[in-house]
Amino acid sequence: MNAPIEDYALLSDLETAAMVGRSGSVDWLCLPRFDSPACLAALLGTRDNGFWRVSPVASGPCTRRWYQPDTLVLVSEWETGAGTVRVTDFMPPRAQLPCLVRLVEGVSGVVRVRSELRLRFHHGRVRPWIRVTDGGTVAVAGPDAVWLNADGPVRAGHGEDATVLDLTVPAGRKVALTLAWSPSHRPEPPAPLFVPAETVLKETGDFWRRWSGQCRYEGPWRDAVVRSLITLKALTYAPTGGIVAAPTTSLPGALGGERNWDHRYCWLRDSTLTLSCLLRSGYREEATAWLDWLVRAIAGDPAALQTVYGVGGQRLLPETEAPWLPGYEGSRPVRFGNAAVNQFQLDVYGEVLDTLYLSLCAGIPMPAHVWDLVEALMAHLQTHWHEPDQGLWQVRGPARQFVHSKVMVWVAADRALRMGRLLGRNGASGAWRALRDEVHREVCRTGWDPGRGSFVQSYGSPALDASALLIPRLGFLPARDERVRATVRAMRGLDHGGFVRRYAPDGPGVHGVDGLRGDEGAFVPCTLWFADALAATGRTEQAREAFERVLAVRNDVGLLSEQWDPDAGRQLGNAPQAFSHIALVETAFALTASRSGVARTRRSPAD
Question: What count of other Cβ atoms lies within 10 Å of the Cβ of residue 548?
């Protein structure tokens, strides 16, 4: 059995990430980038697919663990019959080469600790060649070399399958184990192996504390907001400014099911929402870097705009399956790459233009070529906005006239008009205003179902969709509008144990909109959108209760996955999920504003 998804904590160096379980085992690590093949992949299989466990001999899960305040430095502590030992795990940001440091420290007594490293390159498939050198143990397979070094006394054992280090740790002793990646053609050990661990630990902690200190949210949920913002920052690929949706792939939406997707890429939607969230919270550097990434990634014909790109801006992300991996709790297929790269999703245009507008309002200059991009995107929308698409949920069934997609076309035109006024560029304002008004009339006429008393998922369908909860936040209609209030009330039809589904299944285990087999959990962001909409429509106490239900299902170190199963009481989907943490921060701001009587005006309709 795999450990529950909520057992895992996140480490990141702003280039890749590791997932560490309560057992002290790193069961997921891709090197050297988020979207590189995993060299530790037990998360999606078994120990034979690669892991690195550091824990007391014959121990179970740690007794307690926590992140050092306002950092991504993880501390796990085991109390044993022989004494107490602590393991501090971290990845130094922007190191010369990716490395992961595990600092073992005796707290009391004398504890025997074992480090067992089993590397399996190419997504848990390829067994490396292992040798011992003066610089430590090195495992080599193809283009990759991973080095392991200890800075204190250990007893080492090496075999074909694993490298085992045994440590005897009395109170007060510290031994650092450092794992570092380098290209296999370089014969020398990577420099991070030889930097004193205490120095690197201090630098890493200081980096995160400085970054966290910029947060300008002040409210009752500050700890949760800061942890979510740190998580979002951790999903940033620093060399380019790209932001991944999650550091994992194929963690299922239903245990044993096929809803298993690779989220280690930069969705324009998730990236723009992350930047909106960071701007709101006081972070400008990330917005500037992301804008640079955006312009590079989508250069060329706006007709070729993709919904998802690689962290470097690459366009080709072919979706493949990994039959050698049994999947998380038997959930197959395990997928690498994502076929959504080929989908047409209208809402992305609105998300991109909304974030450009928010960046401009935050004082980030807009170069002339970015305005050219705005005009090109709008010209494309004016021709193609009538077309059906795969929508926000990137369904793999037939394209439809999704209501949310049309609302986001309205957002695109609205934000383009706003930017034109701010920049004094009004050459196309008449056509954009006409588009905005036409889309608004069509959505209010065709996207509203009088019989159901709600905005619906797509034209001609009575099905509910939680994305309709975003209508007041986006400024499409004010929260006081009776259609908005009725839609919020109608969302009880998507309730699942106090949480909100994306949309309802048509029958037992079948979602007609996407054609996939198997059910799924409640979608965490949708529950937070519901809380946001409740607050906007004056139901503040119910909004707070919905928000705190979500806070209660974070794991012990404050992380959220994509979905929650209220029946099993388990997290589902890739984790930690940017979409979930974005929604948490946005809703915390909204509820704090409603408590203080401050109206939310970030996305109010244009004049």
Answer: 13
Q: What is the DSSP letter of 519?
A: -
- ∠ CA 470-471-473, rounded to 5°: 65
- Look at the chain and count its residues: 607
> 89 and 20 in contact (C-beta within 8 Å)?
yes
- The SS3 assignment for 158 reads strand
Please give the DSSP secondary-structure letter assigned to residue 200: H
Find, among 49, 68, 168, the residue nearest to 114 by Cα: 168
Burial class (CB in 10 A: 0-12, 13-18, 19+), 76: buried
Phi, psi of 495 (to 5 degrees): -65, 140
Amino acid at 208: W
Residue 236 near residue 140, CB atoms below 8 Å: no
DSSP 469: G
- What average pLDDT does range 234-244 have in this prediction? 93
pLDDT (average), residues 299-315: 85
Q: How confident is the model at residue 508 (pLDDT cuts 50, 70, 90)?
A: low
The upper half-sphere exposure of residue 398, i.e. CA atoms within 13 Å in the direction of its Cβ, equals 4
d(CA 503, CA 483): 19
**Integer Cα distance of 512 and 524 in angstroms:** 21
**Nearest Cα to 93, choosing from 156, 166, 186, 14?**
14
Give tens-digit pLDDT for 216-225. 999 999 999 9
Q: What is the Cα–Cα distance from 140 to 26, expressed in whole angstroms?
A: 19
CA–CA distance from 28 to each of 33, 153, 194, 576, 603 (Å)?
A: 12, 27, 24, 13, 39
CB atoms within 10 A of CB 569: 11
pLDDT 10s digits, 118-136: 999 999 999 999 998 887 8
> Residue range 131-150: average pLDDT?
92
Strand (E) or helix (H) holding 521 = none
Entry pTM: 0.95
Band of residue 602 on the pLDDT scale cut at 50, 70, 90: very low
Cα separation, 347 vs 361, in Å, equals 21
pLDDT at 601: 43
Tokens matching residue 534: 């409740």
pLDDT tens, residue by residue, 435-452:
999 999 999 999 999 999
What is the spatial distance between Cα 205 and Cα 92, in angstroms, rounded to a whole number?
Answer: 9
Instruction: In whole angstroms, give the CA distance from residue 271 to residue 265.
Output: 10
- 105 pairs with which residues across the strands? 86, 174
CA angle 557, 559, 565 (to 5 degrees): 120
Phi, psi for 242 (deg, rounded to 5): -65, 155
Angle between helices 524-536 and 482-490 (to 10 degrees): 140
User: Which tokens belong to 364?
Assistant: 């980030």
Cβ atoms < 10 Å from Cβ of 305: 19
Any bridge partners for residue 106, and if so which? 85
What is the C-alpha separation between 150 and 102, in angstroms, rounded? 10
